[in-house]
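[job 4471] stage=fold_predict status=RUNNING
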Amino acid sequence: MKVLVSSAERFELFLERIVGDGVLYANVEDEEGRVHFEKLPSDQLTRIFLGKARALETSKAFFFPPRSKVAEFPSASPEEMAAPQIVVVGMRACGLKALQILDQVFTDDIVDPFYQVRRENSTIITCDCVEPWDSCFCTEVGYKPYPESGFDLNLCPLNGQILVEVGSEKGEVLVRDHADFFAEPEQALLDQREANRKTVFQRVREINAHFHIAAPFQKTISRQLASPVWAKNGLAYSCVECGACTHVCPTCRCFLLVDQKVRDHTERSMVWDVCFYPGYWRMAGNLSPKPVLLNRFRNRFSCKFDYFVDNYQAIACTGCGRCIQACMGNIDIRQCLSELQAAEKTSKK
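[job 4471] inference complete, writing C-alpha cells
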C-alpha cells in the first residue's frame, strides 16, 4: 500500500479540509491519561491524540448507536432519517476488526439500511497502537496492534511526523486531491514504523503471557459448557449482570425495538439490549430458556467463540479488553478462557 508522510500541523489542516460540513470524531486524552472519542470542531484539532492505545468508548456506537430512530408514524421525511458525513480519527485495529464483524451481521444477508448509510457516509482514519493497556490482548485472538486492511487511511506517529498509509479507493482520492499536505517518506521512517510495530506486538504478548490462551477457542467453549469451572469465583460467580461488558464490547450487537409517543407522532427506536438481562430471554407466558444467570453468562462465550464461528468463520472478539476494564465483578475474559482451556486439557487425559 502507498505510504506518505506529513507533519502534525499539516495533517490537521488536511483534516479541516476534508471534513467540510461533516462531523469529526477523534481520540483525545483527558487529565487522568485516559483516551476518549470526542466530537471536535475545526478550531480544536490540535487536541487530537494519537498516543497510547484504543479509546474507552466503543467504535460501534458511530454506526450502531445505543439508541436510534428507525421508523416514524406519520412517516418521517428522508432528510430527517439521513446520516451525516463523519470522519473518525484514531480508531485502532481492534475497533476496525470489530467494524468488519458488524459489517457481516448488518449487511451480509438482510441489510440494515441505517447501518449501511452510516458506513457509506464515513471516512475511517485508523492509527497504530503506541502503548497497549494492561487489558489489551489482540495478539492472543489472532490479531495485531496495528491495522492491516479495511481502513481509508492509517496513521503512525513518529517524532512529530505522521506516516499515512492509504488503504482504500476513498483514501487514495483524499490524498490525491490534497497532495500538497503529503510527501514521500524516507526509508528510515518506514523502518522505524516496522520496529515500533514489532515492539508493541511483543509488549502485548508479554502482558498476556501468564494467561496461556490460544486458538482455536470454539471446541473448548462447546465442550466445556457443563464444566464446573463456570461457577468459580472470578468467572460467572462474581457476575452481577450489569451489562457493562456488552455495552463497551465493539462486537456485541443485540437490540430491541421500542415504540414511543413523541409529541404528535410515534417513533420506533432500535436500542441496545443485553443478553445477561433476564428480560432479554423472556417469552410469552413469562417463560425463559435461560432463567439462570450462569446460563446467560455462558451464552456470551458461546455467542462469541462458537455460534459466530459457525455463521461467519471468525470469532466475535477482537481482544480490545474493554470488558475487563468495565466489569464490576473483576471478571477477566482472558482468565475465563485460560481456565476453560485448562479444563479442556484435563478432560482429555
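[job 4471] summary: The CA atoms of residues 141 and 319 lie 6 Å apart.
[job 4471] exit 0
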